[in-house]
Amino acid sequence: MYRKAIITLITAIIAVSATAQNNQLIYPATYVETVVDAATLQELSREFSVDRVKRNADNTFNTRISLSYKEFDNFLSKQIPYTTYTPTRAIVRMAHDYGEMTTNWNRYPTYSTYLAMMDTFQTRYPQLCKIDTILAATTNNHSILCAHISNNLNDNGGKPSVFYTSTIHGDEVVGYYLMIRLIDYLLTNYSTNTYVTDLVNSIDLWICPLHNPDGTYLASDNQINDWPVSTRYNANWEDLNRVFPEVGNPAKPSYEPEVEAMMQFMEAHNFTLAANLHGGAEVFNYPWDSWMTWQHSHADADWWEYVGHNFADTCHHYSATFMTEEDNGVTEGGDWYVITGSMQDYHNWYLGTRHVTLEVCEDKVLSSNLLPSYWDYTFHSFLNFVAEADNGIHGIVTDSLTGEPLSALIYITNHDLDHSYVETTLPYGDYHRPIKAGQYAVTYSAEGYLPKTIVTTVADGEKTLQNVQLSKSVGIPEYDKMVNIYPNPVQDFLTVELSEGTEIDNISLYDIQGRLVETFQETSLQTAKFDVRHLPAGIYILHIRTTNALELIRKIHVL
After folding, report:
1. How many Cβ atoms sit within 10 Å of the Cβ of residue 457?
2. At 9, phi and psi to the nearest 5?
3. pLDDT digits (tens, 9 = 90+) for 125-178
4. What distances in angstroms separate CA 521 from CA 204, 367, 507, 530, 546, one per listed residue?
5. Are strands 463-465 and 392-399 parallel, antiparallel or unpaired?
Protein backbone atom coordinates (compact mmCIF):
# COMPACT_ATOMS: atom_id res chain seq x y z
CA MET A 1 0.00 0.00 0.00
CA TYR A 2 2.84 2.39 0.88
CA ARG A 3 4.57 1.69 -2.43
CA LYS A 4 1.35 2.32 -4.37
CA ALA A 5 0.84 5.60 -2.53
CA ILE A 6 4.34 6.73 -3.49
CA ILE A 7 3.77 5.74 -7.12
CA THR A 8 0.51 7.67 -7.20
CA LEU A 9 2.24 10.73 -5.76
CA ILE A 10 5.10 10.57 -8.24
CA THR A 11 2.70 10.10 -11.12
CA ALA A 12 0.99 13.36 -10.24
CA ILE A 13 4.22 15.36 -10.55
CA ILE A 14 4.92 17.07 -13.86
CA ALA A 15 8.57 17.90 -14.34
CA VAL A 16 9.70 20.37 -16.95
CA SER A 17 12.40 18.84 -19.13
CA ALA A 18 15.10 20.99 -20.67
CA THR A 19 14.45 20.19 -24.30
CA ALA A 20 14.52 22.26 -27.44
CA GLN A 21 10.79 21.75 -27.70
CA ASN A 22 10.11 22.60 -24.05
CA ASN A 23 7.99 19.47 -23.71
CA GLN A 24 6.84 18.29 -20.33
CA LEU A 25 7.64 14.84 -19.02
CA ILE A 26 5.33 13.01 -16.68
CA TYR A 27 7.41 10.93 -14.29
CA PRO A 28 8.06 8.05 -13.84
CA ALA A 29 7.19 7.26 -17.48
CA THR A 30 5.91 8.87 -20.63
CA TYR A 31 5.31 8.25 -24.33
CA VAL A 32 6.94 10.08 -27.21
CA GLU A 33 6.24 9.81 -30.93
CA THR A 34 8.63 10.36 -33.82
CA VAL A 35 9.16 9.57 -37.50
CA VAL A 36 12.46 7.86 -38.29
CA ASP A 37 14.20 5.94 -41.05
CA ALA A 38 14.81 2.20 -40.86
CA ALA A 39 18.34 2.46 -39.47
CA THR A 40 17.31 4.85 -36.69
CA LEU A 41 14.34 2.65 -35.84
CA GLN A 42 16.62 -0.36 -35.37
CA GLU A 43 18.95 1.70 -33.20
CA LEU A 44 16.09 2.96 -31.03
CA SER A 45 14.46 -0.45 -30.70
CA ARG A 46 17.65 -1.91 -29.24
CA GLU A 47 17.70 0.68 -26.44
CA PHE A 48 14.10 1.58 -25.71
CA SER A 49 10.59 0.12 -25.58
CA VAL A 50 9.42 0.81 -29.12
CA ASP A 51 5.86 -0.01 -30.19
CA ARG A 52 3.05 1.18 -32.49
CA VAL A 53 5.49 1.02 -35.41
CA LYS A 54 3.75 1.93 -38.67
CA ARG A 55 5.54 1.76 -42.03
CA ASN A 56 5.01 4.74 -44.35
CA ALA A 57 5.04 4.75 -48.16
CA ASP A 58 8.52 6.35 -48.19
CA ASN A 59 9.84 3.55 -45.93
CA THR A 60 10.01 5.81 -42.90
CA PHE A 61 8.30 4.67 -39.71
CA ASN A 62 5.87 6.36 -37.37
CA THR A 63 7.12 5.19 -34.01
CA ARG A 64 5.90 5.46 -30.44
CA ILE A 65 8.42 4.98 -27.65
CA SER A 66 7.62 4.30 -24.01
CA LEU A 67 10.28 5.83 -21.75
CA SER A 68 10.71 5.21 -18.07
CA TYR A 69 12.35 7.87 -15.93
CA LYS A 70 15.58 5.86 -16.21
CA GLU A 71 15.65 6.24 -20.00
CA PHE A 72 14.51 9.75 -20.83
CA ASP A 73 17.86 11.56 -20.59
CA ASN A 74 19.44 8.91 -22.81
CA PHE A 75 16.68 9.42 -25.39
CA LEU A 76 17.19 13.20 -25.32
CA SER A 77 20.88 12.72 -26.07
CA LYS A 78 19.90 11.23 -29.46
CA GLN A 79 18.59 14.67 -30.48
CA ILE A 80 15.72 13.14 -32.44
CA PRO A 81 12.71 15.42 -32.99
CA TYR A 82 9.67 14.13 -31.11
CA THR A 83 6.32 15.03 -29.66
CA THR A 84 4.89 13.80 -26.38
CA TYR A 85 1.86 11.56 -26.59
CA THR A 86 -1.01 11.33 -24.13
CA PRO A 87 -3.12 8.18 -24.54
CA THR A 88 -6.80 8.65 -25.26
CA ARG A 89 -8.77 7.08 -22.44
CA ALA A 90 -10.82 4.07 -23.43
CA ILE A 91 -14.33 3.80 -22.04
CA VAL A 92 -13.78 0.98 -19.60
CA ARG A 93 -16.35 -0.90 -17.56
CA MET A 94 -15.09 -3.22 -14.82
CA ALA A 95 -16.66 -6.51 -13.76
CA HIS A 96 -16.87 -6.86 -9.99
CA ASP A 97 -17.92 -10.50 -9.95
CA TYR A 98 -18.05 -13.61 -12.14
CA GLY A 99 -21.62 -12.94 -13.28
CA GLU A 100 -20.89 -9.38 -14.44
CA MET A 101 -17.91 -10.64 -16.42
CA THR A 102 -19.65 -13.49 -18.21
CA THR A 103 -23.17 -12.08 -18.80
CA ASN A 104 -22.28 -10.16 -21.96
CA TRP A 105 -18.48 -10.45 -21.93
CA ASN A 106 -18.15 -6.68 -22.35
CA ARG A 107 -16.05 -5.79 -19.29
CA TYR A 108 -12.56 -6.14 -17.91
CA PRO A 109 -12.21 -7.90 -14.55
CA THR A 110 -11.08 -6.26 -11.34
CA TYR A 111 -8.17 -8.13 -9.85
CA SER A 112 -10.35 -9.86 -7.26
CA THR A 113 -12.79 -10.87 -10.03
CA TYR A 114 -9.91 -12.35 -12.01
CA LEU A 115 -8.82 -14.44 -9.05
CA ALA A 116 -12.41 -15.54 -8.46
CA MET A 117 -12.85 -16.53 -12.11
CA MET A 118 -9.70 -18.62 -12.17
CA ASP A 119 -10.80 -20.37 -8.99
CA THR A 120 -14.32 -20.90 -10.37
CA PHE A 121 -12.94 -22.52 -13.51
CA GLN A 122 -11.21 -25.25 -11.54
CA THR A 123 -14.10 -25.60 -9.08
CA ARG A 124 -16.74 -26.04 -11.77
CA TYR A 125 -14.59 -28.19 -14.06
CA PRO A 126 -12.28 -30.18 -11.75
CA GLN A 127 -11.76 -32.92 -14.35
CA LEU A 128 -10.71 -30.45 -17.05
CA CYS A 129 -9.02 -27.48 -15.34
CA LYS A 130 -6.45 -26.92 -12.62
CA ILE A 131 -4.99 -23.52 -11.73
CA ASP A 132 -1.21 -23.51 -11.39
CA THR A 133 0.76 -20.67 -9.79
CA ILE A 134 3.71 -19.39 -11.80
CA LEU A 135 4.57 -16.71 -9.22
CA ALA A 136 2.80 -16.53 -5.85
CA ALA A 137 3.57 -12.88 -5.11
CA THR A 138 4.94 -10.12 -7.32
CA THR A 139 6.53 -6.97 -5.90
CA ASN A 140 3.05 -5.47 -5.42
CA ASN A 141 1.64 -8.73 -4.04
CA HIS A 142 -0.22 -9.99 -7.11
CA SER A 143 -0.09 -13.57 -8.41
CA ILE A 144 0.74 -14.92 -11.86
CA LEU A 145 -1.64 -17.79 -12.53
CA CYS A 146 -1.99 -20.36 -15.28
CA ALA A 147 -4.97 -22.55 -16.20
CA HIS A 148 -4.03 -26.10 -17.14
CA ILE A 149 -6.70 -27.60 -19.41
CA SER A 150 -6.69 -31.28 -20.34
CA ASN A 151 -8.91 -34.36 -20.28
CA ASN A 152 -6.30 -35.89 -17.96
CA LEU A 153 -4.72 -33.29 -15.70
CA ASN A 154 -2.48 -35.76 -13.90
CA ASP A 155 -0.97 -37.52 -16.89
CA ASN A 156 0.14 -35.83 -20.10
CA GLY A 157 -0.08 -39.17 -21.88
CA GLY A 158 2.53 -38.19 -24.45
CA LYS A 159 0.43 -35.38 -25.95
CA PRO A 160 1.94 -32.19 -27.39
CA SER A 161 1.74 -29.19 -25.02
CA VAL A 162 0.75 -25.63 -25.96
CA PHE A 163 1.22 -22.48 -23.88
CA TYR A 164 -0.62 -19.16 -24.22
CA THR A 165 0.40 -16.16 -22.12
CA SER A 166 -0.70 -12.54 -22.31
CA THR A 167 -0.05 -9.00 -21.12
CA ILE A 168 3.65 -9.07 -20.38
CA HIS A 169 3.13 -5.34 -20.95
CA GLY A 170 0.64 -4.39 -18.29
CA ASP A 171 -1.25 -1.80 -20.35
CA GLU A 172 -1.87 -4.18 -23.28
CA VAL A 173 -4.99 -5.78 -21.86
CA VAL A 174 -7.10 -6.97 -24.81
CA GLY A 175 -5.18 -10.25 -24.79
CA TYR A 176 -5.86 -10.54 -21.05
CA TYR A 177 -9.59 -10.45 -21.75
CA LEU A 178 -9.29 -12.83 -24.74
CA MET A 179 -7.37 -15.47 -22.78
CA ILE A 180 -9.85 -15.46 -19.88
CA ARG A 181 -12.62 -15.92 -22.40
CA LEU A 182 -10.70 -18.69 -24.21
CA ILE A 183 -10.45 -20.64 -20.95
CA ASP A 184 -14.19 -20.26 -20.42
CA TYR A 185 -14.97 -21.22 -24.03
CA LEU A 186 -12.95 -24.43 -23.91
CA LEU A 187 -14.43 -25.53 -20.60
CA THR A 188 -18.07 -24.69 -21.36
CA ASN A 189 -17.97 -26.24 -24.85
CA TYR A 190 -16.16 -29.45 -23.93
CA SER A 191 -18.35 -32.49 -24.67
CA THR A 192 -20.90 -30.44 -26.67
CA ASN A 193 -18.59 -29.07 -29.40
CA THR A 194 -16.75 -31.83 -31.25
CA TYR A 195 -13.84 -29.62 -32.34
CA VAL A 196 -13.25 -28.35 -28.80
CA THR A 197 -13.58 -31.83 -27.33
CA ASP A 198 -11.07 -33.31 -29.78
CA LEU A 199 -8.69 -30.40 -29.16
CA VAL A 200 -8.73 -30.78 -25.37
CA ASN A 201 -8.38 -34.56 -25.69
CA SER A 202 -5.36 -34.34 -28.00
CA ILE A 203 -3.46 -31.30 -26.63
CA ASP A 204 -2.16 -30.45 -23.17
CA LEU A 205 -3.04 -26.74 -22.93
CA TRP A 206 -1.80 -24.06 -20.53
CA ILE A 207 -3.15 -20.47 -20.48
CA CYS A 208 -1.71 -17.60 -18.42
CA PRO A 209 -3.99 -14.57 -19.02
CA LEU A 210 -1.94 -12.02 -17.06
CA HIS A 211 1.86 -12.06 -16.90
CA ASN A 212 2.32 -8.52 -15.52
CA PRO A 213 -0.43 -7.85 -12.94
CA ASP A 214 1.59 -5.09 -11.26
CA GLY A 215 1.56 -3.12 -14.50
CA THR A 216 -2.10 -3.78 -15.29
CA TYR A 217 -3.34 -2.85 -11.84
CA LEU A 218 -0.84 -0.04 -11.22
CA ALA A 219 -3.29 2.58 -9.88
CA SER A 220 -5.54 0.13 -8.06
CA ASP A 221 -6.88 -3.40 -8.24
CA ASN A 222 -10.23 -2.04 -9.43
CA GLN A 223 -9.10 -0.07 -12.51
CA ILE A 224 -7.67 -0.76 -15.96
CA ASN A 225 -6.91 1.88 -18.58
CA ASP A 226 -4.07 3.56 -20.45
CA TRP A 227 -1.20 5.24 -18.60
CA PRO A 228 -1.13 6.24 -15.76
CA VAL A 229 -3.90 3.85 -14.63
CA SER A 230 -2.00 0.88 -16.13
CA THR A 231 1.59 0.78 -17.35
CA ARG A 232 3.76 -1.19 -19.73
CA TYR A 233 6.34 -1.77 -17.01
CA ASN A 234 6.42 -3.92 -13.90
CA ALA A 235 6.70 -2.46 -10.38
CA ASN A 236 10.46 -1.93 -10.88
CA TRP A 237 9.85 0.06 -14.09
CA GLU A 238 11.36 -2.61 -16.31
CA ASP A 239 10.00 -3.67 -19.70
CA LEU A 240 9.68 -7.42 -19.11
CA ASN A 241 9.83 -8.21 -22.84
CA ARG A 242 13.35 -6.76 -23.08
CA VAL A 243 15.03 -8.49 -20.13
CA PHE A 244 14.88 -12.21 -20.93
CA PRO A 245 18.28 -13.80 -21.70
CA GLU A 246 19.44 -12.57 -25.10
CA VAL A 247 20.11 -15.16 -27.78
CA GLY A 248 23.70 -16.35 -27.72
CA ASN A 249 24.71 -14.07 -24.84
CA PRO A 250 25.62 -15.10 -21.30
CA ALA A 251 22.88 -15.14 -18.70
CA LYS A 252 22.42 -12.15 -16.44
CA PRO A 253 23.19 -12.49 -12.71
CA SER A 254 19.56 -11.79 -11.79
CA TYR A 255 16.16 -11.30 -13.42
CA GLU A 256 12.94 -9.52 -12.67
CA PRO A 257 10.72 -11.79 -10.54
CA GLU A 258 8.10 -12.13 -13.29
CA VAL A 259 10.79 -13.11 -15.80
CA GLU A 260 12.58 -15.58 -13.57
CA ALA A 261 9.32 -17.28 -12.60
CA MET A 262 8.24 -17.53 -16.24
CA MET A 263 11.62 -18.95 -17.28
CA GLN A 264 11.38 -21.63 -14.60
CA PHE A 265 7.83 -22.46 -15.63
CA MET A 266 8.70 -22.78 -19.32
CA GLU A 267 11.81 -24.84 -18.55
CA ALA A 268 9.66 -27.24 -16.52
CA HIS A 269 7.41 -27.96 -19.52
CA ASN A 270 8.54 -29.15 -22.93
CA PHE A 271 6.03 -27.01 -24.84
CA THR A 272 5.61 -27.76 -28.53
CA LEU A 273 4.04 -24.39 -29.38
CA ALA A 274 3.60 -21.15 -27.48
CA ALA A 275 2.29 -17.64 -28.07
CA ASN A 276 2.31 -14.42 -26.09
CA LEU A 277 -0.33 -11.75 -26.71
CA HIS A 278 0.32 -8.02 -27.03
CA GLY A 279 -1.54 -4.87 -28.03
CA GLY A 280 -0.59 -1.79 -30.04
CA ALA A 281 -0.63 -3.51 -33.43
CA GLU A 282 -2.36 -6.32 -35.30
CA VAL A 283 0.17 -8.78 -36.66
CA PHE A 284 1.49 -12.34 -36.28
CA ASN A 285 5.15 -11.69 -35.36
CA TYR A 286 7.36 -14.79 -35.63
CA PRO A 287 11.06 -15.26 -34.66
CA TRP A 288 13.58 -13.91 -34.74
CA ASP A 289 13.13 -10.59 -32.94
CA SER A 290 16.91 -10.30 -32.64
CA TRP A 291 17.73 -10.29 -36.37
CA MET A 292 16.23 -9.32 -39.68
CA THR A 293 15.52 -12.15 -42.13
CA TRP A 294 18.46 -11.31 -44.39
CA GLN A 295 20.77 -11.53 -41.37
CA HIS A 296 19.48 -14.71 -39.81
CA SER A 297 16.36 -16.53 -40.89
CA HIS A 298 14.64 -19.06 -38.64
CA ALA A 299 15.10 -22.69 -39.72
CA ASP A 300 11.31 -23.05 -39.94
CA ALA A 301 10.60 -19.67 -41.55
CA ASP A 302 8.46 -21.29 -44.26
CA TRP A 303 6.40 -23.08 -41.61
CA TRP A 304 6.00 -19.84 -39.65
CA GLU A 305 4.78 -18.06 -42.79
CA TYR A 306 2.30 -20.87 -43.46
CA VAL A 307 0.94 -20.93 -39.90
CA GLY A 308 0.98 -17.13 -39.64
CA HIS A 309 -1.06 -16.60 -42.77
CA ASN A 310 -3.50 -19.31 -41.69
CA PHE A 311 -3.94 -17.39 -38.43
CA ALA A 312 -4.36 -13.99 -40.12
CA ASP A 313 -6.52 -15.27 -43.00
CA THR A 314 -8.93 -16.87 -40.54
CA CYS A 315 -9.20 -13.51 -38.75
CA HIS A 316 -9.86 -11.82 -42.12
CA HIS A 317 -12.81 -14.16 -42.65
CA TYR A 318 -14.50 -12.53 -39.67
CA SER A 319 -13.19 -8.99 -40.23
CA ALA A 320 -11.56 -7.91 -43.50
CA THR A 321 -9.92 -4.89 -41.84
CA PHE A 322 -8.45 -6.71 -38.84
CA MET A 323 -4.89 -8.15 -38.70
CA THR A 324 -3.65 -6.60 -41.95
CA GLU A 325 -0.37 -4.94 -40.96
CA GLU A 326 2.98 -5.71 -42.62
CA ASP A 327 2.53 -8.70 -45.00
CA ASN A 328 -1.25 -8.87 -44.63
CA GLY A 329 -0.96 -9.68 -40.94
CA VAL A 330 2.36 -11.56 -40.79
CA THR A 331 5.96 -10.47 -40.22
CA GLU A 332 9.30 -11.80 -39.10
CA GLY A 333 10.02 -9.90 -35.89
CA GLY A 334 13.29 -8.24 -36.85
CA ASP A 335 11.95 -7.27 -40.29
CA TRP A 336 9.41 -5.15 -38.44
CA TYR A 337 11.89 -3.86 -35.87
CA VAL A 338 14.72 -5.51 -33.98
CA ILE A 339 14.56 -6.02 -30.22
CA THR A 340 16.66 -8.12 -27.87
CA GLY A 341 15.70 -9.90 -24.67
CA SER A 342 12.22 -10.92 -25.83
CA MET A 343 10.31 -13.85 -24.37
CA GLN A 344 9.70 -15.48 -27.77
CA ASP A 345 13.38 -15.48 -28.74
CA TYR A 346 14.34 -16.87 -25.34
CA HIS A 347 11.80 -19.69 -25.64
CA ASN A 348 12.85 -20.56 -29.21
CA TRP A 349 16.61 -20.32 -28.72
CA TYR A 350 17.14 -21.82 -25.28
CA LEU A 351 14.23 -24.27 -24.99
CA GLY A 352 13.42 -25.19 -28.61
CA THR A 353 9.73 -24.23 -28.37
CA ARG A 354 8.12 -22.63 -31.40
CA HIS A 355 6.90 -19.45 -29.71
CA VAL A 356 5.25 -16.53 -31.52
CA THR A 357 4.15 -13.01 -30.57
CA LEU A 358 0.53 -12.17 -31.40
CA GLU A 359 -0.33 -8.48 -31.61
CA VAL A 360 -4.11 -8.71 -31.25
CA CYS A 361 -5.38 -5.12 -31.18
CA GLU A 362 -4.14 -1.77 -32.42
CA ASP A 363 -5.46 -0.22 -29.21
CA LYS A 364 -3.70 -1.33 -26.07
CA VAL A 365 -6.84 -0.71 -24.02
CA LEU A 366 -9.99 -1.25 -26.05
CA SER A 367 -13.29 0.28 -24.93
CA SER A 368 -15.28 -2.42 -23.19
CA ASN A 369 -18.19 -2.47 -25.64
CA LEU A 370 -15.81 -3.50 -28.46
CA LEU A 371 -14.31 -6.49 -26.66
CA PRO A 372 -16.89 -9.07 -27.88
CA SER A 373 -16.14 -8.13 -31.50
CA TYR A 374 -12.43 -8.84 -31.06
CA TRP A 375 -13.27 -12.20 -29.55
CA ASP A 376 -15.30 -12.98 -32.67
CA TYR A 377 -12.37 -11.92 -34.88
CA THR A 378 -9.77 -14.06 -33.14
CA PHE A 379 -11.01 -17.11 -31.27
CA HIS A 380 -11.13 -19.45 -34.28
CA SER A 381 -7.49 -18.57 -34.98
CA PHE A 382 -6.54 -19.27 -31.36
CA LEU A 383 -8.09 -22.72 -31.59
CA ASN A 384 -6.47 -23.49 -34.95
CA PHE A 385 -3.03 -22.45 -33.68
CA VAL A 386 -3.39 -24.92 -30.81
CA ALA A 387 -4.35 -27.65 -33.30
CA GLU A 388 -1.10 -27.05 -35.24
CA ALA A 389 0.79 -28.66 -32.35
CA ASP A 390 -0.62 -32.03 -33.44
CA ASN A 391 0.54 -31.65 -37.06
CA GLY A 392 3.99 -32.49 -38.44
CA ILE A 393 6.13 -35.43 -37.29
CA HIS A 394 5.23 -37.17 -34.03
CA GLY A 395 6.03 -40.39 -32.23
CA ILE A 396 7.89 -42.05 -29.40
CA VAL A 397 11.51 -43.20 -29.23
CA THR A 398 12.22 -46.42 -27.35
CA ASP A 399 14.87 -49.05 -26.67
CA SER A 400 14.58 -51.79 -29.33
CA LEU A 401 14.93 -54.61 -26.79
CA THR A 402 13.18 -53.38 -23.65
CA GLY A 403 10.67 -50.93 -25.10
CA GLU A 404 11.83 -48.41 -22.51
CA PRO A 405 11.21 -44.76 -23.55
CA LEU A 406 14.40 -42.87 -24.29
CA SER A 407 15.65 -39.32 -23.86
CA ALA A 408 16.50 -38.66 -27.48
CA LEU A 409 17.35 -35.83 -29.85
CA ILE A 410 15.50 -35.51 -33.16
CA TYR A 411 17.57 -33.63 -35.74
CA ILE A 412 16.63 -32.87 -39.36
CA THR A 413 19.64 -32.97 -41.68
CA ASN A 414 20.33 -29.86 -43.77
CA HIS A 415 17.46 -28.09 -42.04
CA ASP A 416 17.81 -27.65 -38.28
CA LEU A 417 19.85 -24.78 -36.89
CA ASP A 418 19.80 -22.44 -33.89
CA HIS A 419 18.30 -25.06 -31.55
CA SER A 420 15.37 -25.82 -33.85
CA TYR A 421 15.78 -29.56 -33.24
CA VAL A 422 13.41 -31.15 -30.71
CA GLU A 423 13.90 -33.66 -27.92
CA THR A 424 11.70 -36.34 -26.43
CA THR A 425 9.88 -35.89 -23.14
CA LEU A 426 9.93 -38.55 -20.47
CA PRO A 427 8.28 -40.66 -19.12
CA TYR A 428 6.74 -41.48 -22.53
CA GLY A 429 9.66 -40.69 -24.83
CA ASP A 430 7.31 -38.66 -27.04
CA TYR A 431 8.41 -36.00 -29.52
CA HIS A 432 6.47 -33.45 -31.57
CA ARG A 433 7.99 -31.68 -34.56
CA PRO A 434 5.78 -29.17 -36.44
CA ILE A 435 7.27 -28.54 -39.87
CA LYS A 436 6.25 -27.39 -43.36
CA ALA A 437 5.24 -29.95 -45.97
CA GLY A 438 8.19 -31.72 -47.60
CA GLN A 439 10.53 -34.67 -47.42
CA TYR A 440 13.11 -34.73 -44.63
CA ALA A 441 15.95 -36.91 -43.41
CA VAL A 442 15.25 -37.19 -39.68
CA THR A 443 17.99 -38.50 -37.40
CA TYR A 444 17.14 -39.97 -33.99
CA SER A 445 19.98 -40.23 -31.47
CA ALA A 446 20.35 -41.04 -27.79
CA GLU A 447 23.40 -41.62 -25.61
CA GLY A 448 24.28 -45.30 -25.54
CA TYR A 449 22.45 -46.07 -28.80
CA LEU A 450 23.20 -46.13 -32.48
CA PRO A 451 21.57 -43.20 -34.29
CA LYS A 452 18.96 -43.92 -36.92
CA THR A 453 18.06 -41.75 -39.92
CA ILE A 454 14.65 -42.09 -41.57
CA VAL A 455 13.43 -40.20 -44.64
CA THR A 456 9.96 -38.88 -43.82
CA THR A 457 7.30 -37.15 -45.93
CA VAL A 458 5.13 -34.50 -44.30
CA ALA A 459 1.92 -32.84 -45.55
CA ASP A 460 0.55 -29.49 -44.37
CA GLY A 461 -2.20 -29.74 -41.78
CA GLU A 462 -1.60 -33.45 -41.22
CA LYS A 463 0.10 -35.64 -38.64
CA THR A 464 2.86 -38.07 -39.61
CA LEU A 465 3.32 -40.74 -36.94
CA GLN A 466 6.83 -42.13 -36.71
CA ASN A 467 7.69 -44.31 -33.74
CA VAL A 468 11.38 -45.21 -33.61
CA GLN A 469 13.33 -47.95 -31.87
CA LEU A 470 17.04 -47.43 -31.24
CA SER A 471 19.50 -50.24 -30.69
CA LYS A 472 22.36 -50.31 -28.27
CA SER A 473 25.78 -50.99 -29.73
CA VAL A 474 26.36 -54.70 -30.22
CA GLY A 475 28.50 -56.17 -27.45
CA ILE A 476 28.93 -52.84 -25.67
CA PRO A 477 26.36 -52.39 -22.91
CA GLU A 478 27.12 -48.76 -22.11
CA TYR A 479 27.79 -45.83 -24.45
CA ASP A 480 30.52 -44.39 -22.24
CA LYS A 481 32.53 -47.57 -22.73
CA MET A 482 32.57 -46.98 -26.48
CA VAL A 483 33.72 -43.37 -26.54
CA ASN A 484 35.40 -41.08 -24.08
CA ILE A 485 35.62 -37.38 -24.94
CA TYR A 486 37.61 -35.12 -22.64
CA PRO A 487 37.87 -32.50 -21.36
CA ASN A 488 34.33 -31.27 -21.96
CA PRO A 489 34.00 -28.27 -21.68
CA VAL A 490 37.30 -27.74 -23.48
CA GLN A 491 39.58 -24.72 -23.93
CA ASP A 492 42.55 -26.00 -25.96
CA PHE A 493 42.86 -29.66 -26.98
CA LEU A 494 40.04 -32.21 -27.20
CA THR A 495 40.73 -35.93 -26.96
CA VAL A 496 38.47 -38.55 -28.52
CA GLU A 497 39.16 -42.06 -27.27
CA LEU A 498 37.30 -45.16 -28.50
CA SER A 499 37.04 -48.49 -26.74
CA GLU A 500 39.41 -51.31 -27.61
CA GLY A 501 38.62 -52.89 -30.96
CA THR A 502 37.00 -49.75 -32.35
CA GLU A 503 38.94 -47.28 -34.50
CA ILE A 504 38.23 -43.79 -35.85
CA ASP A 505 37.67 -43.32 -39.57
CA ASN A 506 36.93 -39.58 -39.50
CA ILE A 507 35.53 -36.89 -37.25
CA SER A 508 33.33 -33.98 -38.36
CA LEU A 509 32.61 -30.94 -36.24
CA TYR A 510 29.39 -28.92 -36.76
CA ASP A 511 28.33 -25.69 -35.12
CA ILE A 512 24.93 -25.40 -33.44
CA GLN A 513 23.51 -23.97 -36.68
CA GLY A 514 24.28 -27.25 -38.45
CA ARG A 515 27.18 -25.88 -40.52
CA LEU A 516 30.28 -28.02 -41.03
CA VAL A 517 33.22 -26.40 -39.25
CA GLU A 518 36.03 -28.95 -39.76
CA THR A 519 36.67 -32.54 -40.81
CA PHE A 520 39.50 -34.55 -39.30
CA GLN A 521 40.77 -37.63 -41.13
CA GLU A 522 42.11 -39.95 -38.45
CA THR A 523 42.08 -43.34 -40.17
CA SER A 524 42.59 -46.42 -38.01
CA LEU A 525 43.29 -44.63 -34.74
CA GLN A 526 41.78 -45.55 -31.43
CA THR A 527 42.62 -42.14 -29.93
CA ALA A 528 42.69 -38.74 -31.61
CA LYS A 529 43.60 -35.33 -30.22
CA PHE A 530 42.91 -32.06 -31.97
CA ASP A 531 43.28 -28.33 -31.34
CA VAL A 532 40.10 -26.25 -30.76
CA ARG A 533 41.78 -23.02 -29.59
CA HIS A 534 40.86 -21.26 -32.83
CA LEU A 535 37.14 -21.99 -32.48
CA PRO A 536 34.70 -19.37 -31.14
CA ALA A 537 33.22 -20.28 -27.76
CA GLY A 538 29.94 -22.17 -28.00
CA ILE A 539 28.20 -25.52 -28.36
CA TYR A 540 29.27 -27.87 -31.18
CA ILE A 541 28.10 -31.27 -32.45
CA LEU A 542 30.80 -33.92 -32.90
CA HIS A 543 30.15 -36.69 -35.47
CA ILE A 544 32.52 -39.63 -35.02
CA ARG A 545 32.55 -42.30 -37.71
CA THR A 546 34.32 -45.57 -37.02
CA THR A 547 36.02 -48.01 -39.39
CA ASN A 548 33.25 -50.52 -38.75
CA ALA A 549 30.57 -48.05 -39.95
CA LEU A 550 29.28 -46.88 -36.58
CA GLU A 551 28.35 -43.21 -36.10
CA LEU A 552 28.56 -41.56 -32.70
CA ILE A 553 27.17 -38.08 -32.00
CA ARG A 554 28.13 -36.00 -28.96
CA LYS A 555 27.77 -32.37 -27.88
CA ILE A 556 30.88 -30.49 -26.80
CA HIS A 557 31.25 -27.07 -25.21
CA VAL A 558 34.20 -24.93 -26.32
CA LEU A 559 35.12 -22.23 -23.79
Report:
1. 10
2. -65, -45
3. 999 999 999 999 999 999 999 999 999 999 999 999 999 999 999 999 999 999
4. 47, 68, 7, 11, 11
5. parallel
Q: Where are the domains of the chain?
A: 2-85, 94-390, 392-452, 481-558
Residue 185's identity, in one-letter code, is: Y
Element (H, E) at 35: strand 29-36
Q: What is the pTM of this model?
A: 0.80
How confident is residue 523, by pLDDT bands cut at 50, 70 and 90?
low
* CATH number for the domain running over 481-558: 2.60.40.1220
Are 496 and 532 contacting, i.e. CB atoms less than 8 angstroms apart?
no
Considering only CA atoms, which of 97, 80, 68 is closest in space to residue 227? 68
Are 94-390 and 392-452 in the same CATH fold? no
Superfamily of domain 392-452: Carboxypeptidase-like, regulatory domain (2.60.40.1120)
Sequence-distant contacts of 245-253: CB under 8 A, at least 24 apart: 245/341, 245/346, 245/350, 246/290, 246/340, 246/341, 246/345, 247/288, 247/290, 247/340, 247/345, 247/346, 247/349, 247/350, 247/418, 248/349, 248/538
What pLDDT does residue 228 have? 87
Residues 6+ apart with CB under 8 A from 530: 493, 494, 496, 507, 520
Question: What distance in Å separates the CA atoms of residue 74 and residue 324, rounded to the nearest whole number?
Answer: 34
pLDDT classification of 531: cutoffs 50, 70, 90: confident
* pLDDT range class, residue 510, cuts 50, 70, 90: confident
φ/ψ region of 335 (left if φ > 0, alpha if ψ in -120 to 50, else beta) reads alpha
Second CATH level (architecture) for the domain 2-85: 2-Layer Sandwich (3.30)
Q: How many alpha carbons fall within 13 Å on the CB side of residue 489?
A: 8
Helix (H, G, I), strand (E, B) or coil at 473: coil
Report the distance separating Cα 470 and Cα 452, nearest Å: 7
- Under CATH, which architecture does the 94-390 domain have? 3-Layer(aba) Sandwich (3.40)
Q: What are phi and psi of 258, to 5 degrees?
A: -65, -35
Cβ contact 338:330 at 8 Å: no
Rounded alpha-carbon distances, angstroms, from residue 236 to 69, 370, 419: 11, 32, 32
Cα–Cα distance, 120 to 94 (Å, whole number): 18
Q: Cβ–Cβ contacts within 10 Å for residue 449, how many?
A: 19
pLDDT digits (tens, 9 = 90+) for 48-61: 888 778 888 888 98
CA distance linking residue 521 with residue 268, whole number of Å: 41
Strands 281-286 vs 330-332: parallel, antiparallel or unpaired: parallel
Q: How far is CA 405 from CA 397, 401, 470, in A?
A: 6, 11, 10
The pLDDT tens digits of the residues spanning 66-90 come to 887 778 888 888 899 998 887 778 9
